[in-house]
Protein 1
Amino acid sequence: MLNVHFGHYSQFENLKGMTLLDMHSHSTFSDGRDKAEKCLKRAKKLGLNLCLTDHNVISGSKIACESGLSIPSIEVTSSEAYDFLFYFYTFADLEDFYQKWIKGHRMVEHSFLNYYRLRWSAEELLKKAKDHQAVVILPHPDAIPPKNSGIFIEGNKHFLKNIDAIEVINSTMSEASNIKAVDYARKWKKPAIGCSDAHLSRFIGAGVTAFESDTVETILEDIKKGRNLIVGNNLKFFHKVQSHMTVIKNNLRW
């Protein structure tokens, strides 16, 4: 059963004493505006834990894991341009995966935007992640094309066996898109997480996932079993524009 609440985490009394984790954010190691250290400082000020899931790099995640409770993680993009979030039980596992399947495997882009695509198809990426015991999350499934992975999964249901949970609150998405993501999770009978997908440190915490547990191993097991709460807001229009413009600017290829 999904436990999803739209609103700011500070509004919910039942979250007190729980581990609050923003599981999806970006720093200057990929297309975020702020350095990893600033992002982590912001999270600490808010009383949150943070995963730095930069695109195809693990430097930010390494800093986050060394600074406190954070899950070793990375956001990767298939050759078809679909995004996946991979979470690992140890940083050594993440590093091994990165060295084998990410480093040196970027595609050469032929558009003015950098999509961070790897040469692996979605099917290949999902298999490689599962071979490394990763917990796989499908982020923003109702994003605009070519990132609308929900439609892709609908047409390829056999991939669901390799997806552990769905990101049902992504603060950079519209409320309608997040509601659609909730619908996907329910339809596919999958657990869920909530995240900010912050590309500016000021938006960290706009979406969080809350856990009774407080270790990487137990948090990942709780995700797979749906033992969590998801809480978050959609960014206000101006903030959403600011976030999207940051992403576009940092992904221009010239």
Note: The chain has one domain: 4-251.
Protein 2
Amino acid sequence: MSSQVLSVEDDAVPSGSAVLRAFKIIEAIACSQTPPQLAELCKQVDLPKPTVFRILSTLEFAGLVGREPGSKRYQGGERLNRLAGQVLLSSPGRAARHAILEELVETVGETCNLTIPNGNAVMYLDRIETGWPLKLSLGAGSVEPLHASASGKLFLGYMNRRARDRFIRQSPLVRHTQRTMVDPSRVSEELDRVRQQGYATDTEEYLSGVSCLAVPVLDVDGRVVAALAMHLPSSRLGLADAMEFIPAMRAAAEEMAQTVDW
């Protein structure tokens, strides 16, 4: 998906089209690397401040956009994020992505999933369960916290540094298990490691007894648009042993990137 906001010629837009103006604003928010403020949005969409503010108020009421906690910056709302996920779930590449996951599960012998960021959480797009009796059942549409999941750490680690620091500073780092990282400085150090090593781990930080290993799915511009992850019941396979599957996971992630026009 291009980071450039599409421009619509004036003569191609019905005069005063509120729907297309709203879409233009949504698109500007979605394509911004850092959640924009009102003044920045006005400049991007070339509309007067009262008009943009009025449309944003409506979109916010509808759950399509929201504001970052404690700031005046706008980001995609939960409803918009769910819609984006549903579009990908029903896209033509779904069967191909599912097949890639199936092949990866055959290779690693553990449950694997494909996730995307969803506001302050991670949302499952697809998941293939292992055949082992002991497994974790989470279907498409399930969510996990960003700071306590391997996929979430990937999204945060590759995020613009300014936006990442703002997330750590403003978002509640909820403790889910005794191993959840809740100290902001420790989380920041962990995310630096994720960016450097190119993969992320979750050592029973969200669910006791379950660890996770995740690698990024990159678009043509090198941005992390999804994550490919493997869940590991700690009693069966430790993270140290699971590291041998990173090359197979990265190869699957490269295939996954070809299944949709991100």
Note: The longest strand covers residues 224-233.
